[in-house]
Design goal:
alpha+beta; ten-stranded mixed sheet; eight-stranded mixed sheet; 18 strands; about 20% strand; disordered N terminus; glycerol metabolism; plasmid
């Protein structure tokens, strides 16, 4: 289902709807993968849904992934077969439901020792089997020449060949915006830049929340039959609004990625290193004509809205990449570096974060607050289904079947081979955007984006700030942080025109964006 472009401001419409005097069936707090998945699940069942996001959709972890829709090869090595099977099933569904956002990608595990290819080959055949009829393509052995044909910059010395397997790739923040549009198409309401500042309790039960509209400073109360806390690494903050003494659920872990030019991986496959020096998996993945390399696993004492890569994390990634790539990227080659936090559920004392489960967890407090956390993008739909099942039962809502396993997401269309890569993510909306002013005017010579996309972000996708546009509606911040800083004044001028902002607002936006984006640049 698609909608025609609107000239009105969609956030103003959402704020008006959010503040009407009614009781929602579900109030969802959090606009990342888990919150949007839950809201779409509820709306497609016909429940009245309001979602509140404190910053912007996918502002946190949900825009900072390795860009993979995958079963989790390393979870198979850990023996978590059920998680892998579920994730592979969801991977297949997501490819069917969002073909404009998800595509197959070959991953090469290079073999430099005689035993490596058969060892990993056996495990990846199990990976194929667990995917069942939704498997993408069968894994297979490739010899040295075939490996170098797919990944020409792979180090040649002592290379024996490798195993090629297939997983899915996507654009995480664009999937979040697609879910936002899907939610709206099915009658749900979502509002960004609207932090929840307190929960409403009546008779010992949580019956709603108070939120602040960041643009006006006004606070509003909303009521709901059930409240879902889907705030990722910040779920404990919301849980403390109900009970300040509640024990924390999470052990946050930071994952860092660096982004470099495509010349470092010019073939048609990604590289997967199955075991790095610290026991993790490392990927080098082609993405939007660049290469994303990561990730790390660094335990952190507390979560932050804008996490920063530690110098040793960047060095670890570059050092590991240099063991496999020739030429290998250096610090001078890094276009952007970004960090995301994983909401890992606490385990026994002494357990390292890379060993913690990636399963999602649902907990219901004495006051009825439903907390959803853990999980990953690949299983967002299943997380939403499980949560809405629990929420409907708790709130006494009419039982309705889940429809999302076969739900085509907003803009769903088969990829158009004639479209430039960055237009694909819009699906059927691309034609509407290309009809807007500025469709042929680049924002920056080193970025693929146009001025029309900024107008669309404001008119149809609730973009409110330069960061909203350059980081998540477009992916400029992750692809080339310096170029995005240079593009910020023009982006802000277009936003000001679309949203009716003055020159002082523009100046403040540019300054705020420069400060934020400087943290993505390696000095």
């Amino acid at each position: 289902m698609t909608t025609q472009p609107r000239i009105t401001d969609p956030r103003t419409d959402a704020l008006r709807a959010a503040t009407t005097d009614q009781t929602w069936d579900l109030l969802v707090i959090g606009g990342g993968a888990s919150g949007l998945g839950t809201a779409v699940e509820a709306a497609t069942r016909g429940y009245r849904v309001l979602l509140l996001e404190s910053h912007d959709y996918a502002k946190g972890t949900s825009s900072r992934s390795t860009k993979l829709v995958h079963g989790g090869v390393r979870y198979l090595a850990q023996g978590n077969v059920s998680l892998v099977r579920e994730a592979l099933h969801e991977r297949g569904l997501l490819k069917q439901n969002a073909p404009h956002l998800v595509h197959d990608l070959g991953f090469l595990i290079a073999a430099y020792k005689w035993w490596a290819a058969p060892f990993y080959g056996i495990g990846l055949k199990m990976y194929d089997l667990l995917a069942g009829k939704l498997n993408l393509k069968a894994s297979r052995y490739v010899n040295k020449a075939q490996a170098l044909e797919r990944t020409p910059t792979l180090k040649k010395q002592a290379l024996k060949g490798g195993i090629l397997y297939f997983d899915g790739q996507f654009d995480d923040a664009r999937l979040a915006i697609t879910l936002l549009r899907t939610l709206e198409n099915h009658g749900g309401v979502a509002l960004n830049h609207a932090p929840v500042v307190g929960l409403i309790r009546e008779g010992g039960k949580i019956t709603g929340a108070r939120f602040r509209d960041q643009e006006t400073g006004q606070e509003h109360a909303v009521h709901a039959r059930t409240v879902v806390n889907a705030t990722g690494v910040f779920v404990d903050d919301v849980r403390r609004m109900e009970n300040p003494a509640v024990k924390p659920m999470l052990s946050p872990s930071q994952g860092v990625h660096v982004v470099v030019d495509r010349r470092f991986l010019p073939g048609d496959s990604a590289i997967m290193v199955p075991r790095t020096d610290d026991g993790r998996v490392l990927f080098a993945v082609p993405w939007h004509d660049h290469v994303v390399i990561g990730t790390t696993d660094t335990p952190l004492p507390e979560a932050s809205v804008e996490p920063r890569a530690l110098p040793e994390e960047v060095e670890f990634i570059l050092k590991t990449a240099a063991q496999y790539l020739d030429p290998a990227p250096t610090r001078a080659d890094v276009r952007s570096v970004y960090a995301g936090l994983r909401p890992l559920v606490k385990a026994a004392e002494g357990t390292d974060t890379k060993s913690l489960s990636r399963d999602h967890v649902i907990r219901i407090s004495d006051g009825g607050l439903i907390t959803l956390t853990g999980g990953k993008w690949t299983t967002y739909r299943r997380m939403g289904e499980d949560t809405v099942n629990r929420a409907a039962a708790q709130a006494g809502l009419p039982q309705r079947l889940s429809l999302t396993a076969g739900l085509k997401l907003h803009g769903a269309a088969a990829p158009d081979t004639h479209q430039a890569d960055h237009w694909q993510v819009y699906g059927t909306d691309a034609a509407h955007i290309q009809a807007l002013p500025g469709a042929d005017t680049p924002l920056h010579p080193e970025l693929p984006y146009t001025e029309a996309e900024v107008r669309w972000a404001a008119r149809a996708e609730q973009a409110r700030t330069a960061e909203d546009v350059l980081s998540r509606r477009l992916r400029a911040l992750l692809l080339n942080a310096r170029a995005s800083i240079e593009a910020a004044p023009r982006v802000t001028a277009i936003l000001a025109e679309e949203l009716g902002r003055d020159a002082a607002w523009q100046d403040a936006q540019v300054q705020a964006y420069r400060e934020l984006a400087s943290g993505y640049v390696l000095n």
